[in-house]
Amino acid sequence: MKSLMIQGTSSGAGKTTLVAALCRIFSDKGYRVAPFKSQNMSNFAYVTPEFEISRAQAIQALGARCDIIPDLNPILLKPVGNYNSIVYLNGRRYKKMNAKEYYEKFVNHEGIKIVSNSLKNLQKNFDLVLLEGAGSPAEINLQKFDIANMRIAQKANASVLLISDIDKGGSFASLVGTMALIEKQHQKLVKGFIFNKFRGDVSMLKPGFQKLKNITKIPVVGTIPLIPLDLPEEDSLNANPKHIAWTKKNISKIDDELNKLAKIVKSNMDMKSIERML
Q1: What's the domain count of the chain?
Q2: Is 86:80 a contact under the CB 8 Å cutoff?
Q3: Which domain does 74 fall in, by range?
Q4: Which residues of 118-155 are buried (b: 16+ CB within 10 A; e: fewer)?
Q5: pTM for the full model?
Q6: Burial of 187 (0-12, 13-18, 19+ CB in 10 A)
Q7: Count of CB atoms within 10 A of residue 101's CB?
Q8: Which phi and psi angles does 127 have, rounded to 5°?
Q9: Per-residue pLDDT tens listing for the chain (278 residues)
Q10: Which residues are CB-contacts of 211 (< 8 A; sequence separation ≥ 6)?
Q11: Secondary structure of the chain: what % helix, strand, coil (to 5)?
């Protein structure tokens, strides 16, 4: 059993897309792969008569060529406004909870048990679990309630790759700041940095890569260009995300986009170093 986790310096850094790409890359290499996100906040779900999970994990499962099952996303939060969400556990509606109740009474009790059980199931049944974090591990006001980032990486015995969106600017500071704010016991889990959505000549970044390594002792293992993709987006950072029907035609279209994405990601990352982390 092997595990690798993608965390980000912020929401929208590219975690979901990178995990989908890596699922396809490692599936192509012959691994039995499963994606995993312990807790996802989204109003866009993959729905069956038996369960519903975030559609992001469903798309990642298409990348991994694995069955879409509740263990891929054991906690789904559907926001309904005024700091309330409908909570789904193992694909089934549980109840509406406000943020205070969820954080203070649920996550460190029933929540962590549910998440840990799903993770164990995947680790038992797959060669490789590719975990996705949520938001940023450096949200220090919420670290003791965080069941989606470093605590889960530790449980999974996973190396962590930290991704940042350079198109927004401030990526070097975001990476250094994130490392400074996570707990010392978790800093050692981070094995590499990834710059996402880059426009231009990568050679212009290399002096910065060396300074970054001098400061953090962590190498840059990938610089992914800004890629035009036709994949359904999450709704947290997009005002008008696309609804999709899970028809054979649409699934085939998603599959083609995943192949395109995987090819670009593979050619812009140090996959040999990443495989050694497993």
Answers
A1: 1
A2: yes
A3: 2-277
A4: bbebbbeebebbbbbbbbbbbeeebbebbbbbbbbbeb
A5: 0.95
A6: middle
A7: 14
A8: -75, -35
A9: 899 999 999 999 999 999 999 999 999 999 999 999 999 999 889 999 999 999 999 999 999 999 999 999 999 999 999 999 999 999 999 999 999 999 999 999 999 999 999 999 999 999 999 999 999 999 999 999 999 999 999 999 999 999 999 999 999 999 999 999 999 999 999 999 999 999 999 999 999 999 999 999 999 999 999 988 888 766 554 445 567 889 999 999 999 999 999 999 999 999 999 999 99
A10: 172
A11: 45, 25, 30
Strand, coil or helix: 45: strand
Per the listing, tokens 């109003």 go with 43
Structure token pair of residue 168? 């927004």
Give, as one character, the DSSP assignment of residue 226.
P
Instruction: Count Cβ atoms below 10 Å from residue 100 Cβ, excluding itself.
Output: 9
Strands (E) in the chain, as ranges, are 2-8, 33-36, 39-41, 45-47, 52-54, 75-81, 84-89, 92-98, 128-132, 159-165, 190-198, 220-225
For 35, 107, 126, 189, 229, the CA distances from 64, given in Å and listed in that order, are 7, 28, 11, 24, 18
Contact 224, 193 (CB under 8 A): no
Rounded to 10 degrees, the C-alpha dihedral 14/17/19/21 comes to: -130
Per-residue DSSP letters for 253-273? HHHHHHHHHHHHHHHTB-HHH
Query: Tokens 């990526």 appear where?
Result: 171
What is the separation of C-alpha 267 from the centre of its chain, rounded to a whole number of angstroms? Answer: 20
Q: For 82-125, what is each residue's pLDDT tens digit?
A: 999 999 999 999 999 999 999 999 999 999 999 999 999 999 99
For position 160, which CATH number holds? 3.40.50.300
Residue 53 burial (CB count, 10 A): 27
